[in-house]
Design brief:
The protein is about 35% helix and about 20% strand. By secondary structure, it is an alpha/beta fold.
């Protein structure tokens, strides 16, 4: 068996053992030599794609000098070049369409998510320095840094994928990196129906809601599919409307032409210049938006979002971390209080009940599937309690989507025809069963 096959295992994944350690040492040594030869001051960090032809030529020369067999040189060349100017050992995982998330827990431990399930990868870095060099190559052009003064960073890769990195002393086992990949093709509503993320009836209902300017909040846990669903919902917005998106890290991929994308900015090296979600929401109101889409509300910007929805910007969309529709309302209530305003609880709940019309709850199952578990409509405020009514739910015992048969409160606003005022509750229920 060739050196490359012995190092990487029978299936081409890097294997453990002395030969793998030998390869890692060879890769690090070649990188150090190239850094010296090319006159860089910070090792591999300064090498870029523009130097790729020269780097390839030099790597081949070093592989020949190391007496690597001809049959193994091409494969080793790609991995070494990737480790120098790409994302190192992670490049193959980034190129793998079945991988949706990459988690580097330490330089020796890399996990991936495939089809909603976690599995340990055999990919490894040579040491902590190689992990840090990879992160530096991404964040340096963005004016970000990762050091003891700034030990956490968020950034975007060229394909839009999101990277988060945290280093010691905050990360006890060494540099830790999480990369959430973007699909090469944005999913549309037919994909979600085919994947059984939601039913066709749910999709029709949500499309009617968005087209009719009914404000929707997507609720769910981490990696439950909130942003994916938000992308799909945004596709229902008519093309003649002006859309402004506001995100911490740009993940939304809207297909309409008239879209203005805003992104928060962290503080600079001097700790100044930070621009948060709340400032962007306020500024967006001066930009003549027809729709405002906030990637996620986490704090006091919830108040500005509610005020926008209640002052002519209905039909807005956002996401929130919560375990259910009722919890989502409680979370929004708490975030409004975080804005530092002295409002009575009833006034806050009145704003929420008036601004938010539909809550869509998504979750990730044990088998890794993302699914819409519940669609609830806000009915209003009764005795200081916001009343919710389920429109759809997922029956876990029967493993099937169910429709409650209740006629939506906003049926007279909905343009799709399936939920119009002309239909009685019974006839709507019959159509739902059909």
């Amino acid at each position: 068996m060739s050196l490359y096959r012995r190092i990487h295992g029978a299936e081409g994944d890097p294997a453990e053992g002395p030969e793998r350690e030998q390869f890692l040492m060879l890769r690090v040594e070649i990188q150090k030599r190239l850094a010296r030869e090319l006159g860089t001051t910070k090792g591999v960090v300064r090498l870029t794609r523009r130097q790729e032809p020269e780097i390839r030529e030099r790597v081949l020369a070093h592989l020949a000098e190391a007496e690597v067999p001809l049959g193994d040189r091409e494969a080793l060349l790609e991995e070494i070049v990737s480790s120098i100017i790409g994302l190192g050992p992670l490049q193959a995982l980034l190129d793998d369409a079945t991988v949706s998330e990459i988690m580097v827990n330490s330089h020796r431990e890399v996990y991936v998510e495939r089809r909603g399930k976690l599995e340990r990868s055999q990919v490894r870095f040579a040491d902590d320095r190689e992990v840090l060099d990879m992160v530096d190559r991404i964040i340096a052009p963005l004016g970000r840094r990762l050091d003891e003064q700034s030990p956490m960073v968020d950034a975007r890769l060229k394909d839009g994928s999101r990277l988060n990195a945290i280093i010691p002393p905050l990360a006890l086992r060494g540099p830790t990196v999480t990369i959430r990949k973007f699909p090469t093709r944005p999913l549309d509503v037919s994909d979600l129906v085919d994947n059984k993320t939601l039913s066709a009836e749910m999709a029709t209902f949500l499309e009617d809601c968005v087209r009719s300017r009914i404000s929707v909040v997507v609720s769910g846990g981490t990696a439950s599919g909130k942003t994916t669903l938000l992308n799909v919902l945004s596709s229902f917005i008519p093309a003649d409307e002006r859309i402004i998106t506001i995100e911490d890290a740009a993940e939304l991929r809207l297909q309409q032409e008239h879209v203005v994308a805003l992104e928060t900015r962290p503080a600079n090296l001097e700790g100044k210049g930070e621009v948060g979600i709340r400032q962007l929401v306020r500024n967006a109101l001066r930009m003549r938006p027809d729709r405002i889409i906030i990637g996620e509300v986490r704090a006091g910007e919830a108040l500005d979002m509610l005020q926008a929805m209640n002052t002519g910007h209905d039909g807005s969309l956002t996401t929130v971390h919560a375990n259910g529709p009722r919890e989502a309302l409680s979370r929004i209530e708490t975030m409004v209080l975080m804005a530092g305003v002295d409002l009575p609880l009833r006034a806050i709940r009145e704003q929420i009940a008036s601004a938010v019309q539909v809550i869509v709850q998504v979750a990730r199952g044990k088998d890794g599937t993302r699914r819409v578990m519940q669609i609830a409509e806000v009915q209003g405020l009764e005795n200081d309690v916001i009343v919710l009514e389920d429109m759809f739910s997922f029956d876990q015992e029967a493993h099937a989507f169910r429709q409650t048969g209740f006629r939506p409160k906003n049926a007279d606003r909905m343009q799709g025809g399936s939920w119009g005022v002309a239909a009685s509750q019974a006839s709507w229920q019959d159509r739902s069963r059909g």
